[in-house]
Amino acid sequence: MEGKFNEQFAKFMKNKQQILIPNAKKYEEMVTMIQKWMGNDKQKISKQESNLIRRYSVRIENSLMILYHQGETAKEAPQRVVKQEDLFNLLMTKHKELGHAGM
What we know:
Layout: H1 2-14, H2 24-38, H3 47-55, E1 56-61, E2 64-69, E3 79-80, H4 84-97
Antiparallel strand pairs: 1-2, 2-3
């Protein structure tokens, strides 16, 4: 089932201009860039980097660096960013938690 999900998800992502769900490599790049900025290494940064820093934050949870999307307004709570590689397991877990385990 996971293989079929990954195949369909890859087809879906192929036609997307923006990566809304980063893969593990992109996720780590984003975390590294934000960490660098947080560490007062505030060199001149590109517009893309500036947008990333404005839209995302990093929190330490259980000694892991976790990426959060800040939301469009201050009223919205930050949302945890999920890696593509973790998506299937997350969806299956939530599916079962909601009582729809009969797959």
